[in-house]
């Protein structure tokens, strides 16, 4: 991969993070239902990429990088309990992705 490709990918990733931070109305469970990933998945992928490069990045630090604030703080402000409909849709999506 060229340096310019890496720069473009990094810029796209930063834009994705900014978009997700602005769209706090989009719940993680909805992302999981539709896309099969959520903000927590991105944090896990970020942490795994760091580990592959010998960088120690714990789960909380990775989530803070993705959410833009500590996860518990973000969750308290933006993430209500999942509705029965969301839980049912999530279970159905898991069957498709599992």
TrEMBL record:
Start and end residues of each SMc04008-like domain: 26-91
SUPFAM superfamilies reported in the protein's UniProt record: SMc04008-like
InterPro entries in UniProt: SMc04008-like_domain (IPR023163), SMc04008-like_sf (IPR036810)
Pfam family, one: DUF1244
Name of the protein in question: DUF1244 domain-containing protein
